[in-house]
Write a structure and sequence with these properties.
The structure is a single chain. By secondary structure, this protein is an alpha+beta fold. The protein has two domains: 1-86; 99-189, 2-Layer Sandwich (hypothetical protein PF0899 fold). It is 78% helix and 10% strand. The chain has five helices and four strands. The chain has a four-stranded mixed sheet. The N and C termini lie far apart (100 Å).
Length: 210
């Protein structure tokens, strides 16, 4: 009886241990499966995060490049405009200093002479100059080109002219403007393409060195 009881206890113990081991093994297996799934999910999530980060990084990089390119273009435009303003100031100043009464007189005589040589000597020539230059120019004309006054050359003051002159051939309705502003504008118009080329060349040099 005692032995039977002991056997029963041993069997119960053995079965309990076996069941416990089986349960433990099942728990461990389930835990491993869950851990593997967690790792797999984490890897998928990590890949998705990395992919999204790469897309955002690429988009940010492309946007940054566009912003920098636009900023570069704006800077070049701004520099070009500043240089153009500086050029206009230099040209205006240079033209103003160059248009002395002596130079103006020579220009006016050459135009009148060339016009007469074309067979338009019967036309009355009217020249408009600034009030400041009028007396000096008339004096120079009277001294060197007195004959032209007799042939119909008239020199008048025009308050709208600060430097340079305007000339008209009345009977032929021909009019020329050689005022300070008109000459400077013409020079700037001629120089602007060259200025743009210089700015572009400098910009290309800066880009090429980076």
């Amino acid at each position: 009886m005692t032995e039977n009881l002991q056997d029963l206890l041993n069997r119960i113990q053995k079965e309990g241990v076996s069941k416990a081991e089986a349960a433990a093994a099942e728990i461990i297996l389930l835990a491993k499966e869950q851990a593997a799934q967690i790792v797999l999910d984490a890897e998928i999530q990590a890949k998705d995060i990395v992919a999204k980060a790469e897309i955002k990084t690429k988009a940010f990089e492309e946007n940054s490049i566009r912003v920098l390119e636009q900023a570069g273009r704006d800077l070049l435009i701004s520099i070009g405009k500043r240089i153009e303003i500086l050029l206009e100031d230099i040209v205006q100043d240079s033209v103003g200093k160059s248009l002395s009464p002596e130079i103006l007189t020579e220009m006016m005589v050459k135009l009148a002479t060339a016009y007469a040589e074309k067979g338009f000597s019967d036309s009355r020539i009217e020249m408009l100059v600034s009030a400041e230059d009028q007396k000096t120019i008339i004096k120079l004309f009277m001294k060197k080109y007195r004959k032209m006054f007799k042939e119909g050359v008239e020199i008048h003051a025009d308050d709208t002219i600060t430097s340079g002159f305007k000339i008209s051939f009345k009977s032929d309705h021909v009019f020329h403007d050689f005022t300070h502003k008109t000459l400077a504008d013409a020079l700037c118009y001629f120089l602007r393409p060259h200025l743009a080329e210089i700015v572009h060349r400098v910009a290309q040099g800066i880009i090429g060195s980076t």
